[in-house]
Amino acid sequence: MSKINLPxxxxxxxxxxxxxxxxxxxxxxxxxxxxxxxxxxxxxxxxLTAITDFxxxxxxxxxxxxxxxxxxxxPVADKFMVIGALVAITVASEALRPYMVWVSIIVIFxxxxxxxxxxxxxxxxxVVPANWLGKxxxxxxxxxxxxxxxxxxxxxxxxxxxxxxxxxxxxxxxxGINYLKEYWKYIDPTK
Length: 191
Known about the structure:
By secondary structure, the chain is mainly α. The chain has one domain: CDP-alcohol phosphotransferase transmembrane (TM) domain (Four Helix Bundle (Hemerythrin (Met), subunit A)), CATH 1.20.120. 77% of the residues lie in helices and 0% in strands. The chain has six helices and no strands. It has helices at 6-31, 37-62, 68-92, 97-122, 132-151, 159-183. The longest helix is centred in the N-terminal third of the chain and has 26 residues, at 6-31. The protein is globular.
């Protein structure tokens, strides 16, 4: 039995941190404790979780530690990280809830569609790599989540949160449509 390499350990760690991040976002709502510390903790935890995504890929490529597990689980961990945070924010933020519901739905449907495409084309022996638009989408989602987690601590206008989540929705749709257009030719409903 071989040992789990460092990039895969970081991916597993990211998956394990998702419920911790979600609970930290929901903690003030669940307890009524709105101390600023409980607002900073989720932002720090989310940033640390997002950093593991950046680091695991760098290490895997630099030291040739790319595995099938990593190719599959790294994007899954990213999806859990972003969707988990968006769902927690949707529940926690009464002010943004109507808007966040739509952003969350867009993100969830895009991720399900792209993951489905990846699964279908993998049956044809095709690996669907992350492209620059998908990476921009993930970066925008992560930055928008951090902006919300920090912005709501200082004022209730949510201007930057609205801008960030609008950018998230646009890039999420754009990258999803891009993947579907590029790989649609491999999807044969008669098979």
